[in-house]
Amino acid sequence: MKIATIVIRSLLGLLFLYTSLSYFLHLSPEPASSGEFKAFQLGLIASTYLMPLAKAVELLCGLSFVTGKYTTLANLVIFPVTLNILLINYFLTPENLPLALFVFLGNIFLIFTHWENYKGLFKAD
C-alpha cells in the first residue's frame, strides 16, 4: 500500500504541476472547446480570478505531493478542485472523463491512506 500511495501521490503531483505551470507559462496552446463547455470556459475566464486561483492551488498541492510534505493539508485543499474537475468533465466533456476519474479517485485514495490524520476533523466535542 505504501508504494501505491507514493506512486499515486507522485503522479497526481506531476500532473498538477504540469497543468498549473502550463497555464501560467503558456507552455502549450489552449485546446479548442465548443458548445456548452466553451460557454462555461468563457465564464471562468471572465471572472478573472477563478482560473488563476485554481491553478495556484494546483501548483501548491502539486509541489506538496511531489515533495511529500504537508500532504494531509494538500489533500483537503485540492479536494474541491478535483471534485469540480470530475463534475465538469462528466457533464460537459465526457471524453476527458477517464483522466478526471483518475484525479478524483487518486485524491480519495490519498485521503483514505492518511485517514488517521483526518479523524479529529470528525469529532463532535
UniProtKB/TrEMBL annotation:
The keyword DNA-binding does not apply. InterPro entries: DoxX. The keyword Cytoplasm does not apply. It is a multi-pass membrane protein. The chain crosses the membrane at residues 7-27, 39-61, 73-91, 97-115. It is found in: Membrane. Keywords: Membrane, Transmembrane, Transmembrane helix. It holds the Pfam family DoxX. This is DoxX family membrane protein.
